[in-house]
Design goal:
The chain is of the alpha+beta class and 88 residues long. The protein has a single domain, classed as Arc Repressor Mutant, subunit A. The protein has three helices and five strands. It is globular.
Length: 88
């Protein structure tokens, strides 16, 4: 599973956002603001990491237990999947 081509993460005015570029911007014209956890998850998805690998990165980056990290990662990925941001 990876982020669909055409979606990019950028830092804008002190906030991290996901925007659509190129052809994708014809159907998605907004932006999504993500927090630090979202940045780690998005980067993991963009790099083609597995869910377990992304959970490990979240645990390494933040003071969080595995159950919480797993729930957060699965929730984020579910929202990305529901909104058509992922290639699977």
């Amino acid at each position: 599973m990876k982020v669909k081509h055409g979606f990019v993460m950028r830092d804008v005015a002190g906030q991290t956002v996901i925007i659509a570029t190129g052809e994708v911007s014809r159907t998605f014209q907004g932006m999504i603001r993500v927090n630090d956890t979202g940045k780690v998850i998005w980067s993991g998805l963009n790099d083609g990491l597995t869910v377990d690998q992304i959970v490990d990165k979240v645990i390494a980056e933040f003071d969080v237990d595995r159950a919480t990290a797993t729930a957060d990662v699965e929730t984020f990925i579910g929202k990305m999947r529901d909104n058509g941001f992922l290639d699977e």
